[in-house]
Amino acid sequence: MYNTLMTIFLIVCVVLIACVMMQPAKNDNDAMSALTGGAGDLFSRRKARGFEAVMQIVTTICGALFFILALALVYVSSH
Hints:
The protein is mainly alpha-helical. Helix content is about 70%, strand content about 0%. The chain is elongated and about 55 Å long.
């Protein structure tokens, strides 16, 4: 049981790393943002669409699986 959980955990770890690395950058480093303290960014936030939305959902699911599997591994290893 422990070996199976560990294998699944390692697979989820690799997928989670890939998902985080594939997400597009959300910051615009321009001079005006640096001068105004980023006040213009307040209303420029948009909902993620398309690829960004899918990657956010997949990253959230992988993160939840990572947390659940980590707790399961701790429980199995202690008993």
